[in-house]
Amino acid sequence: MSHLTTSDGLSLHYTDDGDGVPILCLAGLTRSTRDFDYVTPHLSDARLIKLDYRGRGQSDWDDNWQNYVLPVECRDVIELLDHLELERVAVLGTSRGGLNAMGLAMAAKERLLGVALNDIGPVIEQRGLDHIMGYLGRGPSVKTLAQAAKSLQRMNDGFKDVSMVRWVEEANRHFRQTEKGLDITYDPRLRDAVEAVGAQAAPDLWPYFDALGGLPLACIRGENSNLLSQATVQEMQRRRPDMIAVTVSGRGHVPFLDEPESVAALQTWLSKLQQGG
User: Fold this and answer.
1) Distance between CA 99 and CA 112 in Å, rounded?
2) Axis crossing angle, helix 70-83 with helix 96-108, rounded to the nearest 10
3) Where in the chain is the domain with CATH 3.40.50.1820?
4) Can you tell me the mean pLDDT for 93-108?
5) What is the pLDDT of residues 6-26, one digit of tens each?
6) φ and ψ at 127, to 5 degrees?
7) pTM (2 decimals)?
């Protein structure tokens, strides 16, 4: 395991494996590097770097929950690239990770080789946000991972034909077993940070998307996503006709990334990165 010490003194966990085009994998709001276990075998020709944001996974929690915001997370990413002596990297961003990728395109585009967005775009649907706020920062009511797996299956009704084995794997990624039962794997004060951002006027994210111009770009959308609409993807494609765009059948927010549609899109994207765009 490797750790980066940030400029404000936090220890952030990351992994760095493989050879080839460097791809930084950035997870969703509450998630960790483990979310990319499914796609890793399908990107064997790349160097995969996976980061746990501050307050998530194996990284330190921040004493100041107000630092759980996109600009600070982007700063952490730049510090990781500097730590690894990487001038440029491609980003595979799931949900929150995609927002960070767009933020990096706006603030430090010279550090990017390309971006792949997993079920995220410049317009975030309220229905998806409401679903996230229903669980964010709250421990599960169930006591065992088996029960949690069944609960995840019920909560994620946009996912079809997913085995219980996979839901158990997901439960192991969402929660950790303690003597008192299950607990979340991130700082619950992350909810405070999201609520504070939500209390402000929503920014126009289209300029952030447009900042991706000229970079190899892919977008993967779950067919039943409640966060990214098909209409938003269509507008993204209008602005970027060269964008690799696929819809993953039987998936909500977010696709696991090992589905045939996801793998095909990412491998096409990787080929563009290998060819220099």
Assistant:
1) 14
2) 70
3) 2-126+189-274
4) 98
5) 999 999 999 999 999 999 999
6) -60, -40
7) 0.96
